[in-house]
Fold H-type small acid-soluble spore protein.
Amino acid sequence: MDINRIKQIVSSPDDIRVCYHGQSVWIDGYDEANRTATVHMRGREHERHTVPVEELTEE
């Protein structure tokens, strides 16, 4: 996924399904300069990870 799509998803009021290595995640934020996103697995808000945006996929 590219950083522009990440921005659209974060600002959207819709529930857009995004996956990280096959697991459904919420995008909490992004770092455009480093091309990373902060995500947490759905249902596990306390487990946040910083991942490359290229490893995120939209369903």
User: Anything to note?
Assistant: The mean pLDDT is 94. The CA atoms of residues 17 and 59 lie 5 Å apart. The chain has one domain: 3-58.
